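hey so u asked for the seq, here:
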Amino acid sequence: MGKIKQSFSWWSFCRAEHDARHLMQAAKAIGYVAVELLPRDLWDTAREVGLVIASHAGHASLEDGLNRRENHNRIEDEINQMLELAVRYQIPNLICFSGNRGGLDDETGALNTIEGLRRVAPAAEAKGVTLVLELLNSKVDHRDYQCDHTAWGARVVRAVNSPRVKLLYDIYHMQIMEGDVIRTLRAHIDLIGHIHTAGNPGRHDLDDEQELNYAGIMRAIAAMSYEGYVGQEFVPKGDPVAALRTAHQVCDVVV
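ran it, structure tokens below
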């Protein structure tokens, strides 16, 4: 039980009118402790402002990922390079992707993804960095993506059986694919290393115009044995700083 550690995703909040340092300082003043998916040239700025870099992509690409054995050599090299940077910048999570099905059945895709993650798990363990396999919807945003249900991702993570291979549970994406968010989180919290948010439908603010009860979801997470970050990854309808402030208030729960 405890307080939610909140981060925010750079890609969804950064706008031309906002100076990078100003946005990070504003987020820090609101109460955010981390930023994620930040361009490499801003990593030093984040550290100067006092923000942890909570996550970064571990390899390319989202569509062409671990579910194909022919990608494993490339992905292993990319992850090993990113692990060195993650240690240097104290980044706790590197995001991994199954890739799209492209006609590949789910059984073969799972076995290939397990094999690929087993290759890189020892290096992640040695570096103390967690590889988080991202759950994404294949209905609206990422057509044909294979890791599109919690059960599939959980099977992969359990089979890899490493303390440094977990799931990135994206509430927005999984609401689209399967719903039942709180029950699913409770059943799989030991496998979840990172969490993302966004309102559904639309991937916008955590307000009363979308269907998810984020206050209730955050109270449930705070009551679980979850020590990772919850990252705001929605596209604000209005001013980004105002949206960050409101989202932080919604998710700022202690139980």
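The first strand starts at residue 5 and ends at 9. DSSP finds ten helices and nine strands in the chain.
lmk if thats what u needed
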